[in-house]
Amino acid sequence: MTTEVSDIKEAARLWAVRVGDPAFDDWDGLTRWLEASSAHLVAYEAAVADEEWAAAALTPKPD
Amino acid sequence: MTERADTHALHAALIEHRARLLRFLAARGAGDEAEDVLQDLWQKLAAAPERAVADPVPYLFRAAENHMRDIRRATLSRDRRQLDWHEAGDRPEDAPAGERTLIAREQLSSVEAALAKLGARVEHCFRRYRLDGVGQAEIARELGISLSSVEKDLTKAYRMLAELREKLYAE
After folding, report:
1. Which of A3, B3, B95, B127 has the fewest C-beta atoms lying within 10 Å of its C-beta?
2. Which band of pLDDT confidence, cut at 50, 70 and 90, is reported for residue B6?
3. Phi and psi for B9 in degrees, rounded to 5?
4. In this structure, are B81 and B130 located in the same domain?
5. One domain for residues B39 and B99
6. Residue B53 lies in a domain
7. Residue A63 falls within a domain, yes or no?
8. A23 three-state secondary structure
9. What is the average pLDDT value for chain B, to the nearest integer?
10. Do A50 and B72 touch (CB under 8 A)?
């Protein structure tokens, strides 16, 4: 993995953490970051999917 | 506040901040379809039951973010169904109910073990934040630590859980 890719993943995770706050209000900042590279959206969606997976795993639903 | 007043306030905010919302939606994955997505989102919001909206603008952006998450989930499950048409699935959700419960239990204990490894404070932050829906400022107050420490702890948890998920699915 190149440094650049892991940097993007790390930045994406930080955005996913921040957006998760009910008080998050830097939507324009997120917009600009997403616009900067198409790789950013991919990484952001992966970060969101990862944390949603973990949260779902911690709250098992009876089926 | 009445439902009507809320819907009016939301609509006024949507008109005023339309360009910002469209730009966000386009960057967030809607691309050229941002206008249509905003239209769908508005229909969803206008049809929703009464709610008190203290601050309409962040509310609209939050709704836009959630809408894009819904679209992505729907796209993923549709793609999965199409794939299943060709080949028998071997993913957890294709397994029989008993096996699914077992997988869910294994995932639960893996996630719990991963969080425990990060220490009590990181685990507490993650659970409060992600499961109880408590904001970072409140968690910082509860623990008597700085906001940036909470953010660092949460990032650590997210990183570890992403690695865990990758590992589990690679097996």
Report:
1. A3
2. confident
3. -65, -40
4. no
5. no
6. yes
7. no
8. coil
9. 90
10. no
Shortest Cα distance from A3 to chain B (angstroms)?
16
Domain that holds residue A10: 3-58
DSSP-assigned states of every residue in B134-150: --HHHHHHHHT--HHHH
Contact B72, B64 (CB under 8 A): no
User: Which of B72, B111, B159 faces A58 most closely, judged by CB atoms?
Assistant: B111
Q: Pick the residue with more confidence: B152 or B76?
A: B152
Residues 6+ apart with CB under 8 A from B55: none
Q: A26 lies in a domain?
A: yes
Instruction: Return the number of other C-beta atoms located less than 10 Å from residue B79's C-beta.
Output: 10
- Site of tokens 């859980």: B161
Whether A57 has a pLDDT exceeding 60, the answer reads: yes
The verdict on residue B90 lying in a domain is no
Give SS3 for B132. coil
Binding-site residues on chain A for chain B (CB distance < 8 A): 9-10, 13-14, 16-25, 27-28, 30-31, 34-35, 41, 45-48, 50-55, 57-60, 63
Alpha carbon distance B120, B86 (integer Å) = 46
ipTM value greater than 0.95 = no
Number of domains in chain A: 1
Residue B100: what pLDDT?
Answer: 82
B151/A63 Cβ within 8 A: no
Quote the domain boundaries for residue B160: 95-170
**Residue B139 belongs to a domain:** yes
